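4.2 Preliminary Data

To establish feasibility before requesting continued support, the project team ran the inverse folding procedure on a target of 294 residues. The structure was first converted into the token representation described in Section 3, and no sequence information of any kind was made available to the design step. The complete token record follows.
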């Protein structure tokens, strides 16, 4: 159990159970339960207690927050609670920027491949596969052998399970054009498509909580970190703290991409925001001359 929350319970603090749940979720995942999410949390907790045939709210809380005994229940709650909405090529200007950045990077004489990309908070995988398609194409268009790897991570086990399967409904693929379907997907059912095995082999998915994970795969240096629509659920100071941690993972001459507006009025030290304005991308200051500094 997280230390602060455990202390709150042990000291029989004035916090009600619901406040302890909210504090525990934020402490462990970074995700803030704002007023508009409280109802969803209350409904979920009540439903789980009914399913487990439990009457004692304190017992359910204590057991679930126990790191060992409650691990499975906790993971299920997190899966049900977090917003995992995503789609292929969700923010087109960002993917256009990735394509341009990849071409510039891999044609730079100092670049030593393979190119490593991290899709952080990748949900069910659409973002990581969109990055794989974009990088593969950009490398070929730049006349380079497509030597790259994509790492997709998310706290949700269920989302990562789906990501590894790589099977999607047409409804999630409205931004996928015909030539992309033809090159990168196999039809596996009515309205169902699977990412081709060649591309799937390039993408490795891991269940990982960004606040606590020390996995060596993530600890490797990355050339591009793509993290969109995750930080918006975190408090502003927490976003900055995390971004400062993320840039430690970046290799020289690399890039961090966030969702538009997820970090405002602040730029990590040693980095500069680069054009275009419809994209929130940062590169190390010594590489800014490659792009157009804002
Ligand atoms: C709204 S989805 C965004 C998916 C994708 N990045 C996109 O933009 O389409 C946010 C994702 O962040 C994940 N997430 C939230 N907190 C996390 C944490 N502490 N560590 C890793 N992933 C987290 C959620 O499980 C969810 O899948």
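Position-by-position output of the design step:
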């Amino acid at each position: 159990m997280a230390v602060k929350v455990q202390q709150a319970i042990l000291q029989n603090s004035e916090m009600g159970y619901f406040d302890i749940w909210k504090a525990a979720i934020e402490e462990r995942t970074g995700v803030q339960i704002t007023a508009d999410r409280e109802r969803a949390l209350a409904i979920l907790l009540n439903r789980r207690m009914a399913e487990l045939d439990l009457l004692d709210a304190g017992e359910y809380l204590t057991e679930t927050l126990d790191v060992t005994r409650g691990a499975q229940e906790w993971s299920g709650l997190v899966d049900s609670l977090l917003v995992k909405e995503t789609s292929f090529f969700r923010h087109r200007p960002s993917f256009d920027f990735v394509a341009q950045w990849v071409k510039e990077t891999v044609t730079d004489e100092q670049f030593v491949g393979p190119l490593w990309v991290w899709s952080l908070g990748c949900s069910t995988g659409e973002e990581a596969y969109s990055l794989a398609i974009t990088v593969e194409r950009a490398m070929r268009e730049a006349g380079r052998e497509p030597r790259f790897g994509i790492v997709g991570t998310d706290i949700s086990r269920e989302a990562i399970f789906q990501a590894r399967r790589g099977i999607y409904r047409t409804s999630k693929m409205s931004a996928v054009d015909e030539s992309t379907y033809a090159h990168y997907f196999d039809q596996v059912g009515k309205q169902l498509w699977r990412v081709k095995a060649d591309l799937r082999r390039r993408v490795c998915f891991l269940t990982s909580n960004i606040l606590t994970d020390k996995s060596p795969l993530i600890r490797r240096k990355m050339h591009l970190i793509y993290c969109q629509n995750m930080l918006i659920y975190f408090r502003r100071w927490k976003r900055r703290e995390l971004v400062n941690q993320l840039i430690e993972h970046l290799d020289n001459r690399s890039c961090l991409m966030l969702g538009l507006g997820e970090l405002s009025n602040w730029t990590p030290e040693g980095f500069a925001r680069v054009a275009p304005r419809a994209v929130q991308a940062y590169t190390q200051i010594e590489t800014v001359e490659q792009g157009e500094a804002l």
